[in-house]
Amino acid sequence: MWQIRAMSGMTKDIPITLDSTAVGNHMKIVVFGSKLSVVTSQDINIAWQVIPSGSVASFQYPYETNIGVYYYSGSNKILVLSQVAAAPGTTWDYLAKSSDEEGTIKLDQSVGTRSDGMYAILNQKPDAWSGRLVNVGLYKDSKLFMVEPSVGVDTYAEMTVSNKLYFAVVVHSDSITNGKMFVPSFVNVFAKQNSANTILPEVLEAQVSQLKEVDLNQYPNGVTVTITQDRSTLRFIFDMKATK
User: Fold this and answer.
1) Residue 111 DSSP label
2) pLDDT category of residue 204 using cuts at 50, 70 and 90
3) Which end of the chain is more exposed for a tag (fewer CB within 10 A), N or C?
4) How far, in whole angstroms, is CA 27 from its chain's centroid?
């Protein structure tokens, strides 16, 4: 059972403005909120927001979190179930009664709300067949925010969202889109799905800048993140300013 534990307590959406007009328009800014350690021992990041550089963009970090399940069919096509809005601390069941059925996600009302705010999702064992491995994702703004891959039958995924975001500048970034998993290029890893049973989407390699952590607990009314670049060192600089 793989667990992500983080801070909780946010009660409203947080507006975020990203100003990258000072760094040109030939890169992308990737915002993510979680890391995985699967396939390799190195960090794998999930691109939650992907924004062209050289622009001013605004988006919300939503209070609401959705649960979703996705998996590979025999043809390696990704099948994604509809997302379900889920309150922190709730427990859910995924069940596919047959191999031809995509399955459903339902709230387990027999379990009380957990005080730690952690989401628990059971890959329920069906009666008529052996079941399938699935990826369980948490979504913000309908975009994949974090995921526990390869959750076995009769096994729980336990996750809780963090109120921290991480910003990075990505170059050579044509393949980076929302929901993609990637590793920094200095890790020198290019991992792909090995088989239909692995059910892990392709993990891309990306050349990224240093990461900047933004703790949204410090910016309850919103934050503007401004990116500039030092001309002598070429290092990207991230500045934060709270919204009044």
Assistant:
1) S
2) low
3) C
4) 21
The residue behind tokens 């191999």 is: 99
Is 38:168 a contact under the CB 8 Å cutoff? no
CA-to-CA distance for 50 and 29, rounded, in angstroms?
6
- Provide the 3-class DSSP secondary structure of residue 186: helix
128/100 Cα distance (integer angstroms): 12
Classify burial at 8, counting beta carbons within 10 Å of its beta carbon; exposed 0-12, middle 13-18, buried 19 or more.
Answer: middle
* Cβ contact 198:150 at 8 Å: yes
**Domain boundaries of the chain, sorted by first residue:** 3-242
Q: What is the pLDDT of residues 67-105, one digit of tens each?
A: 999 888 776 667 788 899 999 999 999 999 999 999 999
Q: For residues 82 and 84, what is the distance between their CA atoms, to the nearest angstrom? A: 7
Tokens of residue 3, six digits: 């667990």
CA atoms of 192 and 80, how far apart (whole Å): 19
